[in-house]
Amino acid sequence: MMTEVDHDDDEVVTLLEKKESENKRWKNDGCIRTQFIAPKLFYFFFFSAQGSLMPYLALYYKQLRLSAAEAGVVSGAKMYAAFLIIPLWSMLVDKFKVGKLVFIMSSTALMATMLIISMAPANICMTRHDRTRRDGLANDVPVFNYSPSMYNVGDVNTEFGSRYLSEPEIEDQTLMLSSKTGSFGHTELFIFFLIVTICGTLFSCPCLSLADSATVDLLARNSETHKYGNQRLFGSIGNGLAAFIVGASISQTDLCPGEERKVNYYWCFYTFAVFMFLSIIAGSRLQFNSRTDSKQATTRVCASLRHVLVNANYLIFLFTVFFDGMAMSFIKAFLFWFLKDLGGTQFLFSVITAVNCSVEVLVYFFSSYLIQRLGSVRVLCIGLLCYTVRFSFYTCMVKPWLVLVVEPLSGITTAALWAAIMSHVGDTAAKDSAFTLQGVIHSLHWGLGHGSGSVLGGILVHNIGPRNTFALFAIISAMNFLIYILVIYCYRENKKQKQDEDLLQNDLKE
User: Fold this and answer.
1) Are 193 and 271 in contact (CB under 8 A)?
2) What is the pLDDT of residue 307?
């Protein structure tokens, strides 16, 4: 009888321990979810700020009469500056442990930079005198020998020289005439944007990288680094929602009633500032701990870069990473520019951004399954093919709304391709070079790639036109695909031949 009672007591104790273990696990899970609220909110607000402004920033430059090359230089200068300055900020944070202070400073600098750009001293709306002056120049078609001193406001007797005015020159002169209200001329305006962008980037560039590091640290402490995508996913959602809502809202605005329609992009800057302020509040709740030994990291870089750079398989992979960043940046900067010339409306731009972000979120959900089924190399090749299709379609497109036919492919060229790149690093890199290769691909993609896409793309659009530039990118994408297939085939054939030789030698020894 006593044995039966003891047995019952043991069962009761076991049940109590099991229940206590479940309660403890539930509390821990709840604590983890609470910890992850901060990064989720940061990514949502930060990329909501990006979505509310960045897709329309090139259109803002275009409305201020900057050329495609000038807009590309302004956008690309930010990427090149970030590529050079971010490592210096990382060293500073590692040495002095001031991650949170630098994060708040850089986020505030980013918000201030965009607000200063919105206050560019230029007149978008022309006065009645300016319009009359422009129309007179266009109708009379006077010959031209230009110097700024000839265009003093209020001077009726304007001198002309020996050749005809072109339409861009008329626009430039109209902008110069508006200097009576204190605005810059064309060249001064371009220099203003360039200086503000570069100076602002020097202080704002470490913002996102610090938040990413803090998020990875948080995931590592809970042994959940594989769930990093679950945090960044909220950024894609915020980006899509903000881009569509803000873009659709400003599509009904008219900055200059009674003139040629000009969209009021200033609301994009104001919305950007609000979301950035909220992201600073959410991001300040993150814990900015550094877990990297700079000396050891430098040693690994020197040792593993040699292995990476002498391997043809890695070299074509690195070029693919660079091209992906360049193509992504070029599309982001100049697709809307091209559609605007075709008669595209602001509402269409909002729809495109919403479609891109929706497809990106969907593909991110299924990217792991896609890579497991097809392999990272096949997904990379599929992404290059989709780039070829997109650029070829843009080359032949004549109606702006037809762009929606190929925009769902952005899910493959953005989300799936980037996920395949990250997966390929884990599959092919040696243990001592995985860290280095990830650093290299981030620099190539987000630094050199995005910077080159804006700068070189803008120069090409300015000199050969957008259609020819899209055709050139399509050719490069197709060549990248074919070379990648050839290199991978040769690499596998050499590997198979080496394995066969090893087996033959083993058989001869036996």
Assistant:
1) no
2) 56
